[in-house]
Specification:
The protein has helices at residues 34-46, 52-64, 70-85, 116-119, 133-136, 144-151, 155-164. The chain contains seven helices and no strands. It is globular. The chain has one domain. Helix 1 runs antiparallel to helix 2. The protein is 41% helix and 0% strand. The chain starts with 33 loop residues before the first helix and ends with a helix. With 165 residues, it is mostly helical.
Length: 165
């Protein structure tokens, strides 16, 4: 969430004509300097959040290094997020694609274009302090970074409480 509302931050990829590439083969496109734009957006949105200064030095390298493949950046960011949550979970890459079976597959609960309440009507997260909530209201499910910057070490317990409701 930025000062003017939601800011979708997506990573541009190099499109190939013809067949859809496997996720492991999707390359990041750096023609637009998206990484600098993302970092400046995060700073503008979260510099005044309670835990930004504690995480910024560890997070900045993800936006300075040029990853060739999207999966490598994703893998590193997932590991960073898990580390910040205090969780040691081995993240492995699958060798083949398995269809998502709704409500039986954890991948179903993460969708970039749907609100979590659409995917799980029983999900009712409690509000926490967000930088622009006084003007724009509380918005759940923005990103793990929003949660980490605003809640810090209490992020895991927040997530666990949200799962129980």
């Amino acid at each position: 969430m930025g000062p003017n509302g939601l800011m979708p931050l997506s990573i541009p990829v190099i499109h190939t004509h013809g067949d859809k590439p496997l996720l492991k083969d999707v390359r990041i496109d750096y023609d637009s300097n998206w990484n600098k734009i993302h970092w400046k957006s995060l700073v503008a949105s979260y510099a005044s959040s309670p835990f930004f200064e504690y995480l910024a030095d560890e997070l900045a390298p993800f936006y300075e290094k040029k990853f060739s493949f999207l999966i490598d950046l994703n893998h590193q960011l997932i590991n960073f997020s898990l580390q910040q949550l205090g969780k040691t979970i081995a993240v492995k890459r699958s060798e083949n694609f398995t269809e998502i079976v709704e409500m039986q597959d954890p991948r179903y609960f993460i969708h970039p274009k749907k609100n979590q309440a659409e995917l799980d009507p029983g999900f009712q997260p409690e509000a926490y302090h967000q930088v622009f909530a006084d003007r724009l209201g509380f918005r759940s499910n923005l990103s793990i970074l929003d949660l980490l910057f605003n809640v810090g070490p209490a992020a895991l317990s927040y997530l666990l409480r949200s799962l129980k409701t």
